[in-house]
Amino acid sequence: MNTENEKNLVFFVNGKKITENEPDPEITLLRYLREKLKLTGTKLGCSEGGCGACTVMISKFNRETNKVQHFSANACLMPVCALHGLAVTTVEGIGSTRDRLHPVQERIAKAHGSQCGFCTPGMVMSMYALLRNSSKPSMKELEIAMQGNLCRCTGYRPIIEGYRTFTKEFGNEEVCGMGEKCCKVNGGKLVDDKLFEVSEFVPYNPSQEPIFPPELKLNDQFDKETLKFINDRDVMWFRPIELKELLKFKQEHGTAAKIVVGNTEVGVEVKFKNFDYKFLANPSQIRELNELEVTKDGLKIGAAVTLTEIENFIESKTDQNVIEKSIVEMLHWFAGSQVRNVASIGGNIVTSSPISDLNPILLAAGAKLEVQSLKDGKRIIKMDENFFTGYRKNLIKDNEILVSILIPNTNKNQHFVAYKQAKRREDDIAIVTAAFNFTFKSNTNIIEDAKIAFGGMAQTTILAIKTASLMKGKEWNRKLIEIVNQSLIDEIPLSFDAPGGNVVYRRSLTLSLFFKAFLSISQELDKSLNLNILTDRDRSGIESYQNLTPKSSQLFENVSSDQPLTDPVHRPKIHSSALQQATGEAIYCDDIPKHENELYLSLVLSTKAHAKIISIDASEALKQPGIHAFYSAKDLTKDQNYFMNEELFTSEIATNQGRILGAIVGDNQIKAQRAAKLVKVEYEDLKPVIVTLEDAIKQKSYHENSPTILVNCEIESEFQKAENIFEGKVRLGGQEHFYLETQVALAIPKDSDELEIFSSTQEPAVLQNNAAKLLRLAANKIVCRTKRLGGGFGGKQSRASLAALPVAFAAYKLKRPVRIMFDRDEDMMITGGRNPFLFEYKISFTNEGKMTALEVKAYVNAGYSLESSDLVVYKASSHITNAYNIPKVRFESHVMKTNTPSNNAFRGFGIPEAQMVSEHIIREIANILKKDYIEIMKINLFKTGDVIFYRQLLDDCHSIRCFHEIIQTSNFKERRANVEKFNSENRWKKRGISLTNVMCGVAYGAQFLNQAGVLLHVYLEGSVLVSHGAVEMGQGLNIKILQIVSTTLKLPLERIHIQETATDKVPNAPTTGASVGSDIYGGAVIEACQIILKRLAPYKEKMPNASWDDWIKVAYFDRVSLSTTGFYATPDIGPEINKPRNYFTHGSAVSEVEIDCLTGDHQVNKN
């Protein structure tokens, strides 16, 4: 008999029992872990189940199978109230650096799979959950387990390499990914590919895992309790045990009642769409909604059954029908495993999204739904053309509950295929989905019945009724294609202003996906009826891409045999905090424990792209409980409010959607964010609204000092005598930084007007000066600290101030600590990204293909403010020729102002965009001259002794060496011939292979930035502490500095430590970027070490057999300073000596890609 529990929620976390009295229905597991239990290893990356940073393992006891079930889940979506009777395991619960590392933690760290480390705990927990279900998984299972986890640093290679060691396949693969080109096969001894030693890993022993809590296993009371929890906003969480309770709940509350299983839709609606649901019901214990069985009529699935449970059930069947096979295939691409583990099929149907992955299959299958209400009882609804009644609407009544779904049986004459096209195959929403269900008259190719369903082509998922009707009675042959294509064009129009864009592409997909279905079914009919509908060249259009099993190798130079084993330089040492990142012990800015009197700041953002601000009214927000202040431009002088060519708080004109208008400060994040939404802003729309580069060019919308000629060689004479001239354009889009850790800051006021700022910034010193200016304080009153970043990529340079400065101001004014962490949508609206570029070029070249002069006009979308866009385009100008010697260049910069977020520094800083131009030009010249572009490259590549167009001498150039080596090691010529052969044999899939070269100049563009400082302390017992001015953000700077100190002082790495970057340790440090950190800080720390060694020299001479510790003690008692600074300024550099770059890096790469010509889907076959 069920009982009612209105107060206590009981669950376990890492083996510890948690009893929560009157839990809050609106709190997620992630917030509970981080704020209540202080388990900050689980990270917040997106709040919508898309990145996997918050992955935990959930365990429950299945009383029907008498087994414990383990599954990964997103803590950011999981309501804490849904955990009654369940066990949660976080990254802290499986191992730590102090006690014992779990093998999944050890292997990702030692395989170099953790860089910035913000994604690492989620990766660890996805792998851990997999191992708890399969102690020796396959590579396919590993791939599926990682579908819902994103990483922005590693490119996934080292993560997969580390976790591959757990799989069945490990040890059976080719030793080296280079194959016959392996350097060891060819006798090479100078390089190696072993980045970690597998034999040193702790073996995985599944018998040593923690047991499931016996209380949950032996006591079934948790399954039989009706739960009801209500918070102070009257939001109710209701978990009934019997269906009649749920029907009564739905009858009482109607549309206000939301059924929550995985919270994958409701959670997103509440967080990002401002929905406010007061009545939440969880049907996890209702038998009728959780059944999964085969009946005489078909497969019956309870509405609350999860997608993973459906997939596993169907795969366990020995006689899967064609519809069931299509469901399993589609589920593989449905979100990530964390979402599929908790999301229900009923939720997918009731949500009625027009881009649902499953609804087209259910429509085409003719699925039947059983719904019930307390008032009217049961009824059956068929999913047909009338089921979806409008955008996210359907025939299920407000008082009805979806109980189950019946997927009908099929017969041997039935053929069913389904497709999903998205921007990427895994964990992405669909652009267009389609399902095709055709039944033929027995032993013929005559169509007896047809159902065609599409998602993404209207406000609802639709059936192409007219087309299907037209097909009935017709023969299945090639004549059918034209008939169906014309009918689909007529039946499924899509206006050019349709939501979602990509209109032409989406319309073409309806035809392409039908054609793929035609090819697939024709293949089956050819076999069964001995028809000859297909040719061999057609067959390539049948199969959709599946992910290739990743295989890779990375070669590095061996150290010389005479290098001491204790010398770590040049050895593949792991990231200095990789182990802490893998265990969740590494502290990021938002992991810093909250102060007792701490407040939270939420920004008020513009909702208009271009508008005059008439008024800002925060009165209603300030009336809310727990709200302390509202700040805007009115609280600052004009000078205080201005930094980096823009206002902090917009005063008069909102220049883009997401511009900061003000800030609300409250007791906590929830209160502050809710109050911020109550701030009323009155606007007056302004014209024009400029979004694209084309808009800006048409409107002549320039930033100051634009256009500007950045490079001005004399080129007219070259053009006049040129044998060939060609003009063209190259366009490149923007890109979001998408660092996993969003912008975050914490400001703590001290006495004497001091302020301490913790920030996820790449430039603490710049932030220090910005804060000093804002607060009208001397910089010596402000200390900025940064331990590590969860990714930066340039996006946490000046943009970090947009988070840190408001909290600094609020903390200073209120005399209380204040914190902020941008939500993912806020971060993307506020911070901008990579600049979109449009290059117009004119190139002259000889009949042999030698380039002689280049003229470029570069248009760059800077966004609403200049920020660093002028510097980005300047960097592009110096790399416009890439690795190719073009003697004369003229480069004109057009920095365009648009009503979009201000674009800024992004990895490469304009260099990749410029290099793309020269690579494009090389191929255009080859096309014009009808030559091989490889030959054009060869005669244009820089060589030692050449002079770049800006007059710098290349005294050590390796471009030609890289070029020839990549042709050999990649087996380029043979692979190119194979590509041509493949393309001649396949009509609908084509391959391409391409070689590209790069040459990058290393140095800050501004000469004064090429400097670095360190602070080095030696303590009395001999340990060394180093502080430097750069920021560790995953690039491995700290381990390089540690290696340098270890080698210079001849000390083990374990005796050297690097603390956080702080402006009171090393002042005036430049931004961490431009790939110069290890160069300049390495130079600085060498100087510091040499100073210490010089001071110790007399004692080493007197005591040659003594130890380091002895020398330190003697020096100390002799009153010798064991602390010093080191400073380095890059020598012999600057435009005045024709050497703006310190040196150049060179590289070449070959990529082989395959594309599906019908859909645009593609895969990289080999890099």
TrEMBL record:
* Positions with a binding annotation for [2Fe-2S] cluster 1: C46, C51, C54, C76
Residues annotated for FAD binding in this entry = 259-266, 334, 344-348, 357, 402, 420
Q: What are the residue boundaries of the FAD-binding PCMH-type domain, all occurrences included?
A: 230-412
One Gene Ontology cellular component annotation?
A: peroxisome
Chain ranges of the 2Fe-2S ferredoxin-type domain: 7-94
Q: Which residues bind substrate?
A: F909
Q: Which residues bind Mo-molybdopterin?
A: Q762, F793, R907, A1074
The UniProt catalytic activity note for this protein reads:
xanthine + NAD(+) + H2O = urate + NADH + H(+); hypoxanthine + NAD(+) + H2O = xanthine + NADH + H(+)
What keyword terms does UniProt attach to this protein? 2Fe-2S, FAD, Flavoprotein, Iron, Iron-sulfur, Metal-binding, Molybdenum, NAD, Oxidoreductase, Peroxisome
Briefly state the protein's biological role.
Key enzyme in purine degradation. Catalyzes the oxidation of hypoxanthine to xanthine. Catalyzes the oxidation of xanthine to uric acid.
Q: How does it assemble?
A: Homodimer.
Q: Which family does it belong to?
A: Belongs to the xanthine dehydrogenase family.
The molecule here is called Xanthine dehydrogenase
State the organism's lineage: Eukaryota, Metazoa, Ecdysozoa, Arthropoda, Hexapoda
